[in-house]
Records
---
Amino acid sequence: MAAAGALPAEWIKNWEKSGKSEFLQLCRTLSENKSHENVTFRDIQQALYELANHVVKGNLKHDQASNVLSDVIEFRDDMSSILADVFCILDIETSCLEEKSKRDHFTQLVLACLYLVSDTVLKERLDPETLESLGLIKQSQQFNQKSVKIKTKLFYKQQKFNLLREENEGYAKLIAELGQDLSGNITSDLILENIKSLIGCFNLDPNRVLDIILEVYECRPEYDEFFVPLIESYMYMCEPQTLCHILGFKFKFYQEPNGETPSSLYRVAAVLLQHNLIDLEDLYVHLLPVDNAILEEHKREIVEAKQIVRKLTMVVLSSEKTEEKEKEKDKEEEKTEKPPDNQKLGLLEALLKVGDWQHAQSIMDQMPPFYATSHKPIAIALCQLVHVTIEPLYRRVGVPKGAKGSPISNLQNKRAPKQAESFEDLRKEVFNMLCYLGPHLSHDPILFAKVVRLGKAFMKEFQSDGNKQEDKEKMEILFSCLLNITDQVLLPSLTLMDCNACMSEELWGMFKTFPYQYRYRLYGQWKNETYNSHPLLVKVKAQTIDRAKYIMKRLTKENVKPSGRQIGKLSHSNPTILFDYILSQIQKYDNLITPVVDSLKYLTSLNYDVLAYCIIEALANPEKERMKHDDTTISSWLQSLASFCGAVFRKYPIELAGLLQYVANQLKAGKSFDLLILKEVVQKMAGIEITEEMTMEQLEAMTGGEQLKAEGGYFGQIRNTKKSSQRLKDALLDHDLALPLCLLMAQQRNGVIFQEGGEKHLKLVGKLYDQCHDTLVQFGGFLASNLSTEDYIKRVPSIDVLCNEFHTPHDAAFFLSRPMYAHHISSKYDELKKAEKGNKQQHKVHKYITSCEVVMAPVHDAVISLHLPKVWDDISPQFYATFWSLTMYDLAVPHNSYDREVNKLKVQMKAIDDNQEMPPNKKKKEKERCTALQDKLLEEEKKQLEHVQRVLQRLKLEKDNWLLAKSTKNETITKFLQLCIFPRCIFSAIDAVYCAHFVELVHQQKTPNFSTLLCYDRVFSDIIYTVASCTENEASRYGRFLCCMLETVTRWHSDRNIYEKECGNYPGFLTILRATGFDGGNKADQLDYENFRHVVHKWHYKLTKASVHCLETGEYTHIRNILIVLTKILPWYPKVLNLGQALERRVHKICQEEKEKRPDLYALAMGYSGQLKSRKPYMVPENEFHHKDPPARNAVAATVQNGPGGAGLPASLTINAAKLEESTAEETVDKLKEKTQGAVKVINKAANATPKVTTSNGNSASNSKIIKEKDDKEKSGKEKDKEKKEKTPAAIPEAKALGKDGKDKPKEERANKDDKSRETKEKTPKSDKEKEKAKKEEKTPKDEKSKTVVTNAESKFAAEKEREKEPSRERDVAKDMKSKENIKGGEKLSVAGSLKSPVPRSETSESEREQKRRKVDTHSSPSHSSTVKDNLCELKDSSAKHYINHTTPALSKSKEREVDKKDLDKSRERSREREKKDEKDRKDRKRDHSNSDREVPQDSTKRRKEENGTTGSSKHSKSESPSDSPRSNEKEKEKNKSKSSGKEKGDSVKTEKMEKSSSGSKKESRHDKEKTEKKEKRDSAGGKEEKKHHKSSDKHR
């Protein structure tokens, strides 16, 4: 394609040789290239131009060029034309040049090529002067003139009739003909003949005649029937296009800048279109403005609307405002020049007026949506057409009763749309017309109302069931059309109407027939999409927001009324936008809630419904975070919305279904945040509060009847909830949401923890759990009090279905079923009463019990499936069902509460009497109200009293079958606590109180197999685990429960008489824990008052210990929960001064540590600390709380040692031991008449009877822990710190080491534990106190040894005696047990030693064990494993210790020292040897035991051998000199060490630490030393008594 550049210079130089052929070759190839036609064409032009250019420049001769061109011409047909183009270009170029030579060359070239290009082509393309010089024309001037004439003739001369030849008479006659009176029998055919005659006669222009006919028709529009046929028949003589052109010409005439097309012309065009005399397409092109201009204008409107919106949303300063206004004025002035009117719209209006819907529709389709109808005349014309079309149907179904209405006349036009006679007809045209109208239906409120009424009528028919299947399908289609119309027409039109409340109400009449799902869908479209569809709506939205801002800025509590009216006015037409803004403000400022709620009273029903939708939409907003940034609390926007919800739904009749379904859906999706809304709604609408901060008075009131609850139970006296709670109930029942919500909440409680709470902060998870639980309780309470019995029973399935099929947790399932049982029983009871009129109390009770049996029998069967069969060995299904089905209302009458409320009313009445200003009639009303209330309350109290008596009678009859105790009492208590008390006491505040009352009730009823002591002990013993696993609100309820339990215990503790009366002779206070049965028990088996006080002290100590532990963990949950619990139990704990001080120190420490870190903990701690200080004056020293009289404990010591103990012991065995203990104690009491001993023996039992909860499950409460707890107790009680230190050089370290090493270590290793353990102890970080202890231990080993020697001797002696004394009746029961006891329990026994006082275990246990071993020789019996043993052994150990402590003979200290020196070395050697043997044997025994019970006999024989061989024969222990006993003592220590490790391993270490932390400071320990020395002196006397006591019991035997 070289030509594209230029011809190479070589070609020109060597033209003749090679250039010519090259050029020809190039032209040939270009001509043959057909693929790119236009490219080829340009390239050929370029090549020819280059060649000619060389000729002009003189590089090539013109004849050479003409030769080659003559060859090239043949390559293409159009080559001559291309050449002419090239000449034309060169002609222009050369004529401009001054060099004449080039012009000459050009002329020569053209002349040479004249034979190649025709003259005519050149004349077309070349300049006249050039043509003249070429000789093609003579004169260029003449040529120019001639061409002008030809053009004029061609383009400008009109072929018209000469006006001079047109007869004006002809036209005059024509006009007269058309303008005559047409009312007679003149037809269009007749006139047409006349017109033809006139045209012929006067030689008229036919087109002009047609024009005049149209003019006349314009002036006489009423004669359609005449003119239309006339024009139609006239058109047969003309070309079809003529009429259209004439009309177009008429329209063009008015298209001047200020021209206005007359409506008559539009009408004529419309009628002609309607009769198809012209085509719309043909006429449309003649009309202005063009479609593009319309589109531009539409876009411009949208942009302007957006600018207005932007201006309104901008913050404009006042100085800028004035400038803005001035600018706007200038702009408006510029706009005054009016553009030519829109002829397309004019024609459209005319078409609508004549009823030509088809053509009108096609014009509208050419324009942007709603552009046409945004012009009012068109909208009104279309509305009028719709009026006409729906008239017959509206008259038939739409007119409201009593309304006359003004009928609308039909269009006198057969081609107009057919009128609608049925709903089906609406689909054909009307719905379509309405869709074109869109938001502009607002121009005709009457039509709006008619359409809505038709909708209502349709919905009525749609919802009636009498339709056939085909009709149903049609109706479905119609329904969806109606929804579309509502979405696209009705709601947007309402937006543009100016606050028309009636229309809003009218629309609601139709809306309320839609299900809420459809309604909300419509509101969503309206709010989020409709407003963006049209510039007018965009403006309205901005103005609404602007106005809403204005109102909201000024809204306060004081101006609620005027602001409310403004809000109402604004809401009638734009509720979605307004509410959206109001809600956004409420989410930011919660103090707006009250004024906003009050100001919403001027809304229409539709607006309330929209408000409900807006609230749900705001709640579901996915962009909003439901948690605050700290991730521990629920966002304030959600809280504000929730409380607004509650207030607004209560005050106004808004439909709740959507909101409730939303909450249910969120729960289904596993999200529980939104329960906050349900909680608020139920609280406000039903007046049912849930609060953890209830006072005890309120709680008490809540246990009464409904009236008392309303008067005294709630914080806010929420009155007048009858209507709102009815609405809430109806919404729940109509949409079947009552039970699903309950079940979802019950299931979601665990969902919160295991599914929802995965990533969340622990604190938030707790909050959500509480919220879920509280809402369930509140909602269940609402259902129970508001649903009728039938409704309730119909909806709530039986308990087994709830738990097994719906997987409802048991506590929640019973909570839901409880009202059902109560309803059932009362209705059954009423039935029976009616059947027989017997009025005696006895009869009534009998009927009540019968009705209970009838109702509860199926429940008893149902609950069996809820737990494993094993459970029912201990507690009966009847007991379980009874516990879960009763409430506080059934157990006690809150007389105080009733009295309090009645007195309040009396005071009110007095105040009314004294009030001088109150008008008399109001006084009378108020007094009547108060009197009526008073009567109601008294009546209610009476009713409840009767009910409670009946219930107690029923329980009295049931109680014997309650606790089966097929295993042990301890197991029974475990099951009771595990399955009944603990789940329920944290369910609600009232349930917490109920649980405590129920325990007391079971005690008072003297229920067989129920150990009250055990129960209380397990509740108080180790609260750490329960506290740590609670949420905040659960901790509060658990605190209430403990508070009520403590209240009972404190009452018993306070006065001997009360104790004797309420507990003295009750089976719950037996200290002998037989597996079954109760034989009335002699006094000796009962825990006496003084020992009970000791036990209470132990409980207080345990509570302190647990509290201190929790406070020191540093864990948020532990600290928070224990502080909540402590605050709740403040009235009854701490009562003992030193325990109170220990707590105070810990709490003070928390206050200091948490001040900066965790402010909420700091606040809790500060609050508690303040309250604790205020309680200080009421605390008492320990010796006032219980008599600390150590010698008294001797009496029981020896007996205890017979008795086994420890966690793994068989029950009957432990029981025997306890029994034995008591019997011997009794005897000694008789003989020695020592009251003190009587007191003591029982304390053992008390302790016996109180194992820990956890132990019972076998999980975690380690024995060593128990021991240490006891130690701690004594320490903190400032008892025998020093003794402990003096008497056991390494007792505690041993235990500790043991704990670490575990029980499976070989015994040999343990022999060295003494030293090792001391080392381990030293390794652990020590507090000062610990260090001090260690020092003391090192300092005084000698003294201690000597003491232990003595005491051991004594203890052996006592034990020996004791063994011989066991009463025969015990022997039978206890046979097989003993063998096991030694293996299982023996190990733990020694450990349990430290129970009552921190005296070393080592001393006590040796002698105990020996006695036991001897027993083993004689007894063996099958074992029942039980945990009761735990405590028995604790007791015994403790008493044993005391005994040991105090049996030191009254030797002077100097003597002791001498003995020490002599025997110390001997004793060490012997004990070591024995220990080694001992340990080996014991190891084997242990292994055997763990493998199987069958090997017991072997073990026991081994043990016997071992004893005979290795122990310093205890037979001689009476006579044995003090010097012998150290062996046993040392050995005992080792044993003790090995055993204490049992199951407890790590626990012991922990508790050890705790123990240390709780013990006093150095000073205290010194103080203790002194104390203990004094005690020792006292004790020696006690020891002697003890010996006597043993002898006496021996004789008795």
---
Amino acid sequence: MARLADYFVLVAFGPHPRGSGEGQGQILQRFPEKDWEDNPFPQGIELFCQPSGWQLCPERSPPTFFVAVLTDINSERHYCACLTFWEPAEPTQEAASAEDAADGEEELEDGGRMRLSPSAPAPASQLFAPKTLVLVSRLDHTEVFRNSLGLIYTVHVEGLDVSLESVIGNLLTCTIPLAGGSQLDSVEEGARTISLGAGDRQVIQTPLTDSLPVSCCSVALLFRQLGITNVLCLFCAALTEHKILFLSRSYQRLADACRGLLALLFPLRYSFTYVPILPAQLLEVLSTPTPFVIGVHAAFQAETQELLDVIIADLDGGTVTVPECVHIPPLPEPLQSQTHSVLSTVLDPELELADLAFPPPTVPASSLKMQDKELRAVFLRLFAQLLQGYRWCLHIVRIHPEPVIRFHKAAFLGQRGLVEDDFLMKVLEGMAFAGFVSERGVPYRATDLFDELVAHEVARMRADESHPQRVLRHVKELAEQLYKNENPYPAVAMHKVQRPAEASHLRRAPRPFPRLDEGTVQWIVDQAMAKMQGAPPAVRAERRSTVPSGPPMTAILERSSGLHANSARRLEVVRNCISYVFEGKMLEAKKLLPAVLRALKGRAARRCLTQELHLHVQQNRAVLDHQQFDFVVRMMNCCLQDCTSADEHGIAAALLPLVTAFCRKLSPGVTQFAYSCVQEHVVWSTPQFWEAMFYGDVQTHVRALYLEPPEDRPPTQQVGEALAQEEPPSALDVASEQRRLWPTLSRAKQQELVQKEESTVFSQAIHYASRMSYLLLPLDASKSRLLRERAGLGDPESASNSLVTNSMAGSVAESYDTESGFEDAETSDVAGAVVRFINRFVDKVCTESGVTSDHLKGLHVMVPDIVQMHIETLEAVHRESRRLPPIQKQPKLLRPRLLPGEECVLDGLRVYLLPDGREEGAGGSAGGPALLPAEGAVFLTTYRVIFTGMPTDPLVGEQVVVRAFPVAALTKEKRISVQTHVDQFLQDGLQLRACTFQLLRMAFDEEVGSEGAELFRKQLHRLRYPPDIKGTFAFASGATHTPGRPGRAAKDKGPSLSAPRTLSRNLMKNAKRTIGRQHITRKKYSPPSWEHRGQPPAEDQEDEIAVSEEAEPSTLTPSAGLKPADRLTLSSLVERACCRDYQRLGLGTLGSSLSRAKSEPFRVSPVNRMYAICRSYPGLLIVPQSVQDNALQRVSRCYRQNRFPVVCWRSGRSKAVLLRSGGLHGKGVVGLFKAQNAPSPGQSQADSSSLEQEKYLQAVVSAMPRYADASGRNTLSGFSSAHLGSHAPRARVTTLSNPMAASASRWTAPRGKWGSIRVSGRSGGPGVGVDVGSRLAGRDVLGPPQPNGAPPDSGFLRPQRAALYIIGDKAQLKGVRPDPLQQWELVPIEVFEARQVKASFKKLLKACVPGCPAAEPGPASYLRSLEDSEWLTQIHKLLQVSVLVVELLDSGSSVLVSLEDGWDITTQVVSLVQLLSDPFYRTLEGFRLLVEKEWLSFGHRFSHRGAHMLAGQSSGVVPIFLQFLDCVHQVHLQFPMEFEFSQFYLKFLSYHHASRRFRTFLLDSDYERIELGLLYEEKGERRGQQACRSVWEHVDRLSKKTPVFYNYMYAPEDAEVLRPYSNVSNLKVWDFYTEETLAEGPPYDWELARGPPEPPEEERPDSSAPQSRRRVVWPCYDSRPRAQPDAISRLLEELQRLETELGRPPERWKDTWDRVKAAQRLEGRPDGRGTPGSLLASTVPHHRRSLGVYLQEGPAGSTLSLSLDSDQSGGSSASSSRQAARRSTSALYSQFQTAESENRSYEGTLYKKGAFMKPWKARWFVLDKTKHQLRYYDHRVDTECKGVIDLAEVEAVAPGAPTMGAPKTVGEKAFFDVKTTRRVYNFCAQDAASAQQWVDRIQGCLSDA
């Protein structure tokens, strides 16, 4: 039994002693006056009676009631029920109050009562003072307290005839049963009826279970006031220990809210400051640093504004304010959303029915009390789900004398899969959970509703998750139990308590509350005490039992969690590998090891590994040999690699006993254990890990202590019982049983058990001290690499988490100098740190486990000895490990494969290849293995720099890493300093960057030495920059030239040679031609330097040209006739690519003036055949028919490098021509167009050359067919004076307003296609003339361009155009004024110079291959550096200019591109224009011709731009050709069906134009190539020796073997003009810049790029290992096209393989492909009509093919029905495409029809003799009786018949005889002949029987006919 009330107190208003302006509470009386022994009187009650302060009031207020809570020093809560009423103030009180308020001011307080102040005179009415009746109790019965105090007040106010003393005495002596009593005794005992002697009756119901909180309606009220989200927020805040403050104007509401919040936290108890009603005088408590739940009156809200870390809940306003600095972690999903939805259903049951069309009749809502229990039930379920399986993570450390229990947080979080969850982590670390473990972890105690729920209902809750109605049913069941707990007997709850009459407080009280007689009250209390002493003591009968544990956590996890478990196949690999290791099959283990290391990323595989290793440990020891030891250690390290310090998944825990079990013998008496090789993991230096391990082991041993069978039990009985008991009891079960038996044991037995347990703990502490020293002391104690970097003794972040074990030496100390003299000091430092770490651990665990202080002291003495002994043992191990043969860093250096002719210059130098900022190879955020750093060697050959090696990361396994680049591609070499890396101390390193986008960032091994590194640098430099072109790999490999042959003169003085006599000599020698000796000596002419470009040449240069011109008239005058030698030279020049292309284009003829066809506008001029006019031009040039050769010399002087305008291409449709030239020299057209020409000394000469130039341009214009048609002024409107300077621009814009102009515009619209979608053809709006120059310069223009960078509309060119446009450099044409009388027009544009390309390329290299990790990882920094490089901007400009020129040409105007020197940007633009305009150049042959013509013959300076020789070293690499190929790549991406060649072809050329492997891209012009004898060397007998010196020849050879250069999507449209998008947003970064294949190096040396050969049968692993054809493909390691080829390539390969297996010579892939396409075309058009197409073209609608980009971008293009041409409707094209698709589908299926459908009577293989002089061949013959035919095919599955023998023509079938070349293995009787009217067919069967069968069958057919 317990007292209902401990104290009754009367508190009244009294003056404040310090005169602070308000009164204070005074305790008038308290009963009993003496404190109870078990419950002292709580201090500070007077503050809590009036929390807002004691003040007088001008009017009577109704009595108020609330319950405040005080917490004493023992954390016991005292409930203070306060009933306050007001009485008239006594005069002394009024006076005191008036004095106190002398300095005060008017204030509102507590509901608006006025305080007195001197400024307001005292009112005439009476003042009232508060008086409070207080009842103090340790029980929480609010309603009983309200009724009892109300009764006392009623007796006083109503003047009832009852003694107040007796009422209070009865109240103080009233006792009620303890919780749970009603379960044992009668109803009267469980629901106690009390009376205070005033005619009243109350029933007090005690809760059934004391541990369940009583909430009445407080939880429901809290939800009503704040709502679901806010309450959940407060719930999480309270659990994660935040400060919570409630505000309200009602004290009782504050108390209820705090009580409700704590009720929600059950089964956890709130253990911090809890003050539901805080008095005003104690508001500074809110600044406490500890968490709290406090309620404060809303009047003090202003004082709470400054609290920065307090969550404020305003109950009256329904808001919760969370400060910015406070983070409340939410509940883990899906619990958060599930709880929210169940709460909303409980609070609003009609929510689920709100949307129903026919809602059921409304269900009566639950009462407030029942709703309160339902809400609590939701949270009870939530805790059961959160903490399910918690008992499986309890460690019983001690059972006697009191249980000591620890909770394994890491294991709980790991097994629940909630390691990253912030909420649960904070809850488990909080004080509330610590109290939960100590209270509920006890295995033998009384259980309650939560224990049942978490043990038995978890499965039901999981099953109900997706069924809201079931969840609600469960909630209601739980709510019933909670309700019953608070109201066990609702039927007897009848109260009868007197209350005062209405408004009784307003009546004048007869008298103040009287002073009570202490003696009377005390007498009543004493009487009751005496009676109680006589009665037997009320012992609370507690029903204790074993607490159920519930289902184990693992089962819960496997069902609930979506964690990815390793597949059985991976676990099988792990098991196989371990069994191979222990069976000694090292080769097999080695093959499986990489797969095992990858599998060990998964948790299941790690568990499997530990289980398997445990099986191989006998009696705590397993001795291995060195290789086995190495394998085991590598797998252990891999397991531990991803272990965090907490070891959530128990992998480190499982490995701990194994690392002390596996060992190897180093020498007699010296054994090395595995722990010395797995120390570098952060988990070993984490105290929490060791504590959890220690407690787990102690629990195991304590359990074993009580499971030992007693000695007196017979063994048979033990065995029988053991069999009967399926599962041994858990530690908790054992502990529960022991706690049950404990009271029954004798004192001696109890003492014995306590001692046994303590000695168990003590022995485990010694054991763990040893274990910790094993894993914390390094093998070489002289190096203090100990725990300084590790957790516990330093910064845990810096600890290395990946150790690579040295398999033989076990240590890495060989490279250190240990004879330094500081060894002892460092050793003691290491030992001291370990001793301190272990001592801290021992102190903590032993104190918690109840070890006596004597034992603890003994342990402290032992620890240093244990550490010292271990150090001595390690010294011997370390010494012996150093004596072992040194481990080879790699078993052998991996030698690279070399090309034919490639020779090693420096053999392998050991290096480490370091990561270079590209994440893919280093296993960064992109995932994948960490292939770098890799350990291996670098080789320097005459062609390449090659690194081969293996990754140092053991997880990657033994993958070979290859990175290589051609020596010629090296652009920068930089020394780098490298910190100590992996296990070796490294020297300085070297970083090599190549223009093929490769980077070698190497650190030389110590064995290489600085001399070796320097030698490598020098040799590399020598090979990169040979003094002469003959030193390059293309010449040096297998060169046959004689050493005495004079080399070419150094090329540092420009691209010209010393004299024409050298040229003639070389032409005679190398081209086997004789050229007449030139009797002229000239000074050498050098082109102007970069600085002087654009300036007029010096006078002496002009004179020199003039002299040369006059002295040699015959060579320049074609009319004089050609010499015989010149004709021979010309015949060889005609064979060059230029002439072949001129003939294809129909550009003029070659011949004397007599034979020249005058009708042709252009002719081929041999004026430059001796390279006398321009050395960088080809020998034959296209010039206007009307221009004489002798005028060309004068024209050429106006242009840079003498590169005068020549025709390079002509449009087949518009007949417009494309010309190219160098930029203008200051004179010439610029001089012509100047407004005023100032006189100068050389004026006359300049005028004459300018005149020649003007005539030349006029001749070009006249030669154009459109010239005659054009009338009036032909200019491109819009090219205005915008470029003339700063004065007023005169831009002219013409608008096509009349219909005629619009129709003319449409008629002249160019054909072809844009890479864009036009909605309404090309005339959809007024055409606007645009300033093209401005547009290309990036200015805003009137006509808005297409969004993708296409010209705005094809109407932007007026119908009347100039006949010739000259595209020139804006800077060069500055100040030029267009002359209206000329037939040509200038288009000044801004172009970038070579130095800008060079700078941009450098930045591009650094963006794509950074060289060091980015400061901010992620794509942002890469994209930023890519943008900074401006590479794509330059691509954009090139494409833009090219598209403009294409437009002009297509509209019929000719264009002259005259930029810079005419060999860089001019070449790029001219080549792109031809590629876009002429489909021929988009074929393999055409592209080759284009490059040979425009780049090689027209003199792009490959050697100069590629810095091929020593002379060009300073100029650096300027990749003009690469930029052109990138442009082609961009066009290819947008129009994939228009190119015959693949993207790989472009990459191949990009790589090899810089590699110097082939001679194609060497030297700067045809002139230089002739001089070296390269131009004609392919002809004649030398061809056989020069194996693949030309890249084109190499491509041809490869194309015959493999379709790698071929584009299967090639399906061109005739005469198609391409207009690609050019905006930067439409351009893609070329993957040539970013892709890498570390498995084999760059894939462009095809001979080297073949994968490793398949192992022969005898070398393959035996069948015990699982065999699989699967393999892992890593993005940056493997070549994806090779590992996973496209479908067509795969089919072609398969076909070739099958043909080889059948013993037939495989057909060439191209023939097969062409045949398939032809068959497809035939089958697709059975009627012979329709558009010509191919396999792909037939299925693709026209518009979609035009927008080639959509072929790659998926289904977006499939719904487009917009047509490009305005006259073609979308519907028709779509319908035709559907028919085509149907046709092609049927054609595809027709290939796979069965052979039976052909009426095959008999079939088989026969050898057939071909026609005369042809061999025997095996064919598949089909005898068809129906068609009366004998057909034959190439092979059985061939669907195309190769020949037919009509049986109607057969005259006889007779045995034959073998002829020459017949199969040798068959007998003579296998031959037979079939004689027809035309010829005799010779056949051979496989044997005589089958021959006879064939003869019978054929004769049978004949007879049937």
